[in-house]
Amino acid sequence: MNLINLENVAKAYGPKPLLDGVSLGLDDGDRVGVVGRNGGGKSTLVSVLARETEPDGGRVTHARGLRLGYLTQRDEFAADATVRSVVLGDRAEHEWAGDTRVREILGGLLAGLDLDAPLAGMSGGERRRVALARLLVPESDLLILDEPTNHLDIEAIDWLARHLKGRRVALLVVTHDRWFLDEVTERTWEVVDGRVERYEGGYSAYVLAKAERSRIAAATEAKRQNLLRKELAWLRRGPQARTSKPKFRVDAAQALIADEPPLRDSVELTRFATARLGKTVYDVEDVTVRVGEGEAARDIFERMTWRLGPGDRVGLVGVNGSGKSTLLRLLDGSVKPVSGKVVRGKTVQLAHLSQNLEELDPSRRVLESVEEIQRRITVGKREWTASQLLERLGFQGDRQWTPVGDLSGGERRRLQVLRLLMGEPNVLLLDEPTNDLDIETLTEVEDLLDGWPGTLVVVSHDRYFLERITDHVVALLGDGRVSLLPGGVDEYLERRAAGTAPTREAAAPAPPAPPKGGQDWKARKELDRLERRLDKLAKQEAELHEQLAAHATDYAKLQELDGRLREIQAESAQVEEEWLMLAEDVG
């Protein structure tokens, strides 16, 4: 059933159209992720779909009686609102307490919050949890979520993904969290230049499709192609969970990037880092750190010992308030231990990106604010000018001469990252570096950091970014120590679930799986047939690409081959959809 339909919709703010003649629809059961540059029109698109914003032209149609839940980027509540009044309204306690789904939401999002607590004075993360709980408690036909993971920690993001995957509801999500996109979405919309480009599959399938399209137009898209191929190399080499894609998808990605070199030459980077840093970077020895005064004082770290070596790339995880930012401030010297010592290498040149945007002269131009640090830097084996790096991070042409005071929050964040790198530090501390950055900018930052030789400590709720640019993960688990996690973020979530299970509301047990019927073997046989058909179509498509290259100057032949290629691609998409639907039923 069609839930929402857009017909030739246009919307502009100023001279540049954000949506230009867009026609698309959302159906019952759709799970769509929306990606694109900051300021490219993602939030405008979802606001128009939700009928919160009127288009300049075209028509928006909602199904009769549509139950729509819409989460905006801003969490707004009445001045006297409490958690209970926002999430549960006037519902009697016996009514909601007897509802397993409501109990699961309260336990998953609001554990540790008093239902009668006022929202005034709560942190951004707590307010976001309340806003999500308010959205998820009612039954809905469609949920539209604009940056739902903002201010959430890794644990809350993991819970939200599992909840949405288990809920029978159509979903439209705008987020820069690529792990979350891959977990909860099955289609991708890219908002670019006023259009909405549509792709089948979640984020990893979208990257593959973009890389395939880029390969066809390699001459004009060489730079973008290289980044996407590198992104695919990460998808292949990432955690095992990310490889649980349909076999033909994995095979296609493997073939595309068979000759792609490793993301980072770890041996070479370590050699450079050791040359720049020596053997000692940071030795934290038997350190105790106390916060607060009097009766409110507590030890965040107690007799902690930890070593950072040259070339270490460390991801730091822990619940909000566990001391992640405090640990970074301990390393930069702004927090002093009450006992123990922090030994810092003599050659350490430290740069610390904090969560708070540093004050920049609003009258300075963007390029000037970077060149005042340095005009050129060397990253890995390549030299970059300030202007070239600005262009890589989205400041094109005249945008480099924009006054800093006119920049958005995301643009200021990009500028702050670049100013840090221009100082050529050999130790980087990054506290939530992905805040306000779009996916394209994130891939550029990741690519720059791949060639950066030094020691890196990253605190981030963006699981994809964390796993992408670091080599191992450590956690603050509330015992006053730093714990190495060989199993990465997955191990952290398992430990947290085991440690907090008694204090959380127990989720409803999963219904028993239906017994396999006599039709199961037929379904599996059909899956095998579809996979063989997809393999055959893939070979035909590859042959046609070779023929297209061979007849590049024969216009008539190119038209004929292109027609056949489109037919094969259409059939392949149809067979793939049948495979996905059947695979879901078989489990």
UniProtKB/TrEMBL annotation:
Residues 4-218, 282-506 form the ABC transporter domain. Transmembrane segments: none annotated. Residues 499-521 are annotated as: Disordered. Gene3D superfamilies: P-loop containing nucleotide triphosphate hydrolases, Valyl-tRNA synthetase, C-terminal domain. GO terms for molecular function: ATP binding. Keywords: ATP-binding, Nucleotide-binding. PROSITE patterns: ABC_TRANSPORTER_1, ABC_TRANSPORTER_2. Residues 499-508 have a biased composition (Low complexity). This is ABC-F family ATP-binding cassette domain-containing protein.
